[in-house]
Amino acid sequence: MAERVYSYFDYDGEIELPWEGVADFAGMPHYFWLHESSSTPRSGIFDLAPVDATLLSRVVEMEAIWHAWDLDYHAGKVALDSHPLRSGVNPQFVNLKIEISNAAYLLRDATFRRRAIFRATEAFLALASRFEGKRWPIPGFHSATLEVCWSNS
């Protein structure tokens, strides 16, 4: 069964995998880190650790800031140099990123390992199909939303 990905912080387009983020595992939010990629696209082995409500709220807040910027960026309203992580652009985003990174570091001792397959959500695929062949800028488009299926490694 596919589970929700709340946010992914780093993504490798070559292997089509997020390196790090927060997703549900067995219906509960967990932080995940890529441990080992696979020769199968969008598949890898990940370390997971449960997250509390406070960390999840920080992740959701950071994702909302990112998503608003991403929509504006794809619409051509803002330039890449306005990315919220750039120095001086969005201090709240930067602070959230630091808080999340520090909290994630503390979770490393509580990890367990699972295999995962990530894929774009049906909603994102439907959205993307509406914009196929369009040239930049593309108002209404945004970066992929993902879902994940976990299994024993």
Task: Tag the structure with descriptive keywords.
153 residues, alpha+beta, six-stranded antiparallel barrel, 3 helices, 31% helix, 35% strand, globular
Instruction: Give the terminus-to-terminus CA distance.
Output: 16 Å
Q: Which strand order does the major sheet show? A: 1-2-3-4-5-6
Q: What structural category characterises the helix and strand content?
A: alpha+beta
Please give the number of β-strands: 6
Q: Secondary-structure element order, as H and E?
A: EEEEHHEHE
Tell me, what's the shape? globular
**What composes the largest sheet?**
6 strands, antiparallel, barrel
Unreliable segments of 5+ consecutive residues: none
Strand content: 25-35%
* Mean pLDDT level: 93
Q: Radius of gyration, rounded?
A: 16 Å
Helix content: 25-40%
SS field, number of helical segments: 3
Descriptive account of the structure:
With 153 residues, this protein is an alpha+beta fold. The protein contains three helices and six strands. The chain has a six-stranded antiparallel beta barrel. A hairpin with a 4-residue loop joins strand 1 and strand 2. The mean pLDDT is 93.
